[in-house]
Design brief:
Layout (H helix, E strand, L loop, with lengths): L2 H28 L2 H30 L6 H6 L6 H6 L5 H22 L5 H25 L23 H16 L1 H13 L4 H32 L10 H26 L3 H24 L12 H25 L14 H33 L7 H19 L12 H7 L1 H17 L3 H25 L6 H10 L2 H23 L3 E7 L4 E4 L2 E12 L4 E11 L2 E6 L2 E5 L4 E5 L1 E4 L3 E12 L4 E11 L1 H19 L2 H5 L15
Antiparallel strand pairs: 1-10, 2-3, 3-4, 4-5, 4-6, 6-7, 8-9, 9-10
Helix pairs in contact: 1-2, 1-6, 2-5, 2-6, 5-6, 5-7, 6-8, 6-12, 7-9, 8-9, 8-11, 9-10, 9-20, 10-11, 10-13, 11-12, 13-14, 14-17, 16-17, 17-19, 19-20
């Protein structure tokens, strides 16, 4: 599996993607079954080519083929095998190839699992995915070829950025990219619907599983990236409102709105135009994030490419994909019929409010992210927008969003009355009130107190929904268990996902009460933090596979009882001339004891060491909540109704209208 084979497979995939983008569309327009039947075969062929290409790049990294420039720049002989593999996507060229491969897998999945789709709709969806894939594969070949050669080949490579040599970040990009790229499928369904001039309940049923799957991966990717920032960078935080962090949060917000609005299309055939626009917007934001990271516009610790030429290519691709889709939306959206009338007080009404608040938060984050680069571009002024702005603008929108989350699942469709809903939620409100009182006693500021009460409200109301559906405590337990077996899994999944939001917010509220100290101590010296005694007992040197390490031993005691022993470290990578910190964390799932080793001062005979000590209440709950949300989404996907999709439309052969 040599690099030439990988490059050839990439070029072949690009050619197949071009055919995939053109031939099925012509077939759908002419109602030619032979051309439409080519779509699945072309999608699977492109997928196999890109998997082959990516495998060749991994093989080059594993075998230390430093004649490949990408391998020489990002690997080394002494690098551990895991990071030789994961280093393939820890750089610009490899990450773009990974993006293209995941996109081809999405197209292959539609081809293999979308057999119940009408042939014209499937052909159009696969064609749209092929067009986007062709653009990225052309970008790979022309400006970011991962198989470019270097001669003479060096004996050893430069090695990977040491910050990326971590298991958490090693698997963060593939998961995050799967979330980003997964929204290409709802986008393709939206474009196909605009071409056909038809959106109905069946379309909503087909779109929702793909949107939920992408949302699950994006949720996991964001949570994993936040966790990496927390335990690798050594600053004790979890979210910096970094522009690239925001670039992943923005499509998550609109993707969450898309998942909810697709439910309205499926159940009530309402919000059709809005759902199509959300599908276009979510994938557009995913593409825009790619452009921002790789164009050099945004300064970020996450950005690993700064090449204006590449940025111009992606900008052109963005203009074609986003501009073309919005133009098509402007032309065809008025032809989509509206339906599903409902009262403001109803489940549909709350889902609309949910969408408004989510998209408002998205608009605020987008404004704060893009305002500095636009000010720099237009007026030459350098400004920064940080945590105070985002906290002041997003929290007032998040509070009502969480308050209304508790009511949504309990609301009837079409028209509802508030009193019956409030009567069923009384015990959830009581628990939230108890949490409010406890928070007032134990917390300092109003926002964490309010967040704690709302988080308990969301968790308790999610549980209330399940209790009501199972009629627990109102009939024998055996009857409730029988109802649980017949209840759709999507109901449990939705309740779990909502509860996950509450768990994450509890973690955020707890972290607002965190305490920390930066101290300079001798070996044997003890410092106090959060009622615990922290003692530096030893510092030793050690050698790793491709680094030298200085490792500290810190004993943490409470009332004389040993709680844990921490071993934070500093690693020096000679080939990159870079030093990194290795945080030591002990968790009991209620709080984290967190230690960081800083610089060494003084003489060898009487050295002192800088330590950063943290006590972080409820910190693990932030990422536990993200995991619970993703599990809830996965449970929804396991529902047979979601897996098999909608039945074929009646008279599917006559469903196509001229584009």
């Amino acid at each position: 599996m040599n690099p030439e084979l990988g490059n050839f497979a990439l070029a072949l995939a690009c050619g197949i993607a071009a055919g995939q983008a053109i031939l099925p569309l012509i077939g759908a327009q002419r109602r030619d079954p032979r051309l439409m039947a080519l779509a699945p075969a072309l999608a699977v062929g492109q997928m196999l080519c890109l998997i082959t290409s990516f495998a060749c790049l991994i093989h080059a990294a594993i075998t230390n083929d430093f004649s490949v420039q990408n391998v020489a720049a990002n690997s080394a002989v002494d690098k551990p095998l895991l990071y030789k593999i994961t280093g393939v996507w820890g750089n610009h060229e490899g990450s773009v190839l990974l993006w293209a491969m995941i996109l081809s897998i999405c197209g292959g999945a539609v081809a293999l699992f979308g057999r119940n789709l009408p042939s014209a709709l499937q052909a159009r969806v696969i064609a749209v995915l092929g067009g986007v894939a062709a653009g990225f594969e052309l970008f790979c070949l022309l400006t970011s070829n991962p198989f470019a050669r270097v001669w003479p080949a060096p004996m050893d490579g430069q090695g990977m950025n040491p910050l990326l040599q971590d298991p958490g970040l090693a698997f963060h990009p593939p998961i995050l990219y799967t979330g980003y790229v997964g929204f290409a499928v709802p986008f393709a369904f939206a474009i196909a619907a605009l071409m056909e001039g038809r959106v109905d309940a069946a379309w909503g049923r087909w779109v929702r599983p793909w949107a939920v799957a992408a949302w699950c991966f994006l949720t996991c990717g964001i949570a994993l990236g936040s966790w990496w920032s927390y335990y690798v960078l050594g600053w004790g935080g979890y979210w910096f409102w970094d522009p690239v962090e925001n670039a992943s949060l923005i499509p998550w917000l609109t993707g969450t709105a898309l998942v909810h609005s697709a439910i309205v299309v499926e159940k009530r055939e309402g919000l059709k135009i809005w759902t199509v626009l959300l599908a276009i917007g979510t994938f557009s934001f995913s593409l825009s994030g790619t452009f921002l990271v790789r164009s050099g516009i945004l300064n970020s610790v996450h950005a690993f490419a700064n090449d204006p030429a590449r940025g111009i290519f992606i900008l052109g691709l963005l203009a074609l994909v986003i501009g073309g889709s919005l133009l098509l939306f402007a032309m065809r959206a008025p032809q989509l019929t509206t339906g599903g009338l409902f009262a403001p007080v109803s489940r549909e009404g709350l889902l609309v409010l949910n969408n408004i608040l989510l998209c408002s938060i998205c608009a605020v984050v987008l404004t704060g992210t893009m305002y500095p680069p636009f000010m720099s571009l237009l007026f030459g002024k350098t400004i920064s927008v940080g945590k105070p702005f985002f906290d002041a603008t997003t929290i007032p929108l998040a509070i009502p969003l969480m308050a209304f989350m508790g009511f949504g699942p309990m609301m009837p469709w079409k028209r509802a009355h508030m009193w019956p809903v409030l009567r069923r939620l009384w015990w959830a409100a009581a628990l939230a009130l108890v949490a409010l009182v406890i928070a007032v006693v134990r917390m300092r500021d109003i926002l964490p107190i309010l967040a704690t009460a709302l988080a308990v409200w969301v968790i308790a109301s999610s549980a209330t929904d399940i209790v009501e559906r199972l009629r627990l405590f109102r009939q024998p337990l055996s009857a409730s268990l029988l109802r649980a077996r017949s209840l759709p899994r999507a109901v449990f999944g939705a309740a779990l996902a909502h509860a996950g939001v509450g768990v994450t917010v509890l973690g955020l509220a707890g972290m607002s009460q965190a305490s920390h100290r930066i101290v300079e101590v001798h070996i044997g010296q003890t410092e106090m933090l959060a009622g615990d005694a922290w003692t530096l007992t030893d510092v030793r040197n050690a050698k790793g596979p491709n680094y030298d390490a200085m490792i500290a031993t810190i004993e943490v005691r409470h009332n004389g009882r040993l709680i844990t022993t921490l071993h934070p470290a500093k690693r020096t990578f000679a080939s990159q001339h870079q030093t990194t910190t290795e945080v030591a964390i002990h968790t009991n799932l209620i709080s984290d004891t967190y230690g960081v080793l800083g610089d060494k001062h003084g003489t060898d005979a009487n050295p002192t060491y800088v330590l950063r000590l943290h006590h972080n209440p409820l910190a693990p709950w932030m990422w536990l909540g993200g995991l619970v949300m993703a599990i809830g989404g996965a449970l929804s996907l396991s529902d047979r109704r979601m897996r098999v999709g909608a039945p074929r439309r009646a008279h599917a052969a006559n469903m196509v209208t001229p584009a």
